[in-house]
Amino acid sequence: MPDTSLGKCNTTNTAVLTWVEEMTKLCQPDTVYWCDGSEAEKEALTGEAVQRGILIKLNQEKLPGCYYHRSNPNDVARVEDRTFICTESKEDAGPTNNWAAPKEMYRKLITVVNGAMCGRTMYVVPYLMGPPGSPLTKVGMELTDSIYVVLSMRVMTRMGLAAYQHLGDDDGFNRGLHCMLDLNPENRYIAHFPVNNAIISTSSNYGGNVLLGKKCLALRIGSYLARNEGWLAEHMLILGVESPTGEKTYVAAAFPSACGKTNFAMMIPPARFKGWKITTVGDDIAWMRPGPDGRLYAINPEAGYFGVVPGTNSKSNPNAVATIQRDTIYTNVALTDDGNVWWEGKDGDVPNECLDWKGNKWTPASKEKAAHANSRFAAPMANNPALDALANDAHGVPISAIIFGGRRSDTMPLVFQTFNWIHGVYVGATMGSETTAAAMSAVGQIRRDPMAMLPFCGYNMGDFFRHWINMIRLMKHPPRIFNVNWFRKDTDGKFLWPGFGENVRVLKWIVDRCNGRAIGMETPLGWIPAPGEIDIQGLDGYSADRLAKVQDIVSDEWRNEIHLQDELFMKLHSSLPKELIYQRELLAARL
Ligand code: GTP
Ligand code: SPV
Ligand code: MN
User: Fold this and answer.
1) What is the pLDDT of residue 541?
2) First-residue to last-residue Cα distance in the chain
3) 197, 229, 261: which is the final residue of a domain?
4) Rounded mean pLDDT of 11-33?
5) How far is Cα 166 from Cα 264, in angstroms, rounded to an integer?
6) Is 74 inside any structural domain?
7) Which residue ranges have their beta carbon within 6 Å of ligand 2?
8) Is 354 one of the catalytic residues?
9) Which ligand 1 atom sits closest to the C-alpha of 306?
10) Ligand 2, from 214, 329, 331: best to mutate by most atoms within 8 Å of Cβ?
11) Which of 143, 148, 208, 530 is the S-S candidate for 215 at Cβ 3.0 to 4.6 Å?
């Protein structure tokens, strides 16, 4: 018997009811479907998506519960130039964000979404960012006319009735409205209203633009709330390191989009590191607040991974390969004729023929890639064989180290430890990285991406640095701050460091430093490993010479680097904390 309660109104919260009614009047959907997060609902909506061609059912023997989706080719990544922070004054959004006055943006978007759901269904999606019962957890409501968004939110968040339980009679939930429209990029807006805890997203159906719990709520609105409430909302993975003696250390790391967070968070140590185990708390977002013991505690507000697919294989990321074997939505990879998926860098043979991410015939002779460079999997974190035991813990995990790192072919050494908190804030604030396919813009250009938050900070970046500096007052035992770079290249353009699972060699040094073991060596940049402190045994053909190259501090490169920081510092001049200018002068003097 079909479940007749599916889709019916399922809350008595008057704030929710009133708001849904208002939005229904505005968007004029034919039907309003209230989601409850149940299995029956998943089955019904998946069936409908397949029937309407929104999802393609993959080979269920090979990939049980897995589905395939293709985006409109004009809609395959976040759109930073169409993303807006709408605050009363432009200064509150700051010079690194697109700004619009809330009144004007509301006026414009009301025209855009007026009647936008005519002939369509509006899904009411209640969700939690964070484990139920955590003091950090936030409730979001997303109204969307995209069944793909509903099914993805189900994977990526704790979606369903649990959100109403957490909310009770309160009206403190994020109001998110998503209208697909016709995907015309000219009507594409990702608009945030931090003061109203509201988001409106139009004319896109892709990832970070439309899964409103992720970048919009957990980072842009989240960072705004975090500043007001005394915590940190960061673009960081969270992992646990277990040593052979059973010592457990938790680490959070900020790398920009498509710069290695998922890979680092799920890494499997090489044979040489027998007895070491890495466990994943989160792969993209960390919410962190000081605990009563003076340490910084982190939760992962998400429930799934929205990961970069190309390059994922049993050598680079075996845990990810295991995670995406079931209950996964694949977007913009290639499709083989036996209902399987393929991408550049997948295990096994290259297919003789398949359909590329646009649905066109592809062969190994084709000029273009079969999978889009920013093709993604959405997989439940519960599938991860290395999921940390505390990944769902309401209190979160105590963070011993924070790691910053960009994608840099030169200048930045493999690893160094900053001298203290404020020096660490300076290193994070001045981070540079080469741009990637995760955003619709040129790829491979160096830009300043402070703390990997350039596209995600919901207020003035200078005030964000101030907030970071102030956080030290709330922590008796602050995390140590490190910087890494997996992407330095030699003169032949080859990576100087093997990366992936071998990164545990660097991580071990970081853990040793946190736990008072490694001695280190002082340099102008900070503390680096003393000779022998990074174990390179068992690294095929790797020499101490190559390690020295990846750690080299080249003065010309650093002169240029300090100079490159000008751009950001000038841009932020009116809000930049003076302490950071002082840190820069100290660095210049040391060099
Ligand atoms: P977002 O989901 O966009 O936030 O990305 P992410 O930071 O999680 O990046 P991810 O782990 O998906 O890595 C992106 C790409 O970086 C991979 O496809 C790899 O090609 C590359 N990568 C990741 N880790 C390493 C590494 O240690 N060394 C090298 N050379 N490349 C790496
Ligand atoms: C990123 O770009 O940092 C991502 C992918 O994690 S998206 O969800 O599209 O933002
Ligand atoms: Mn990300």
Assistant:
1) 86
2) 74
3) 229
4) 98
5) 32
6) no
7) 78, 207-208, 214-215, 257, 284, 306, 438
8) no
9) 2
10) 214
11) 208
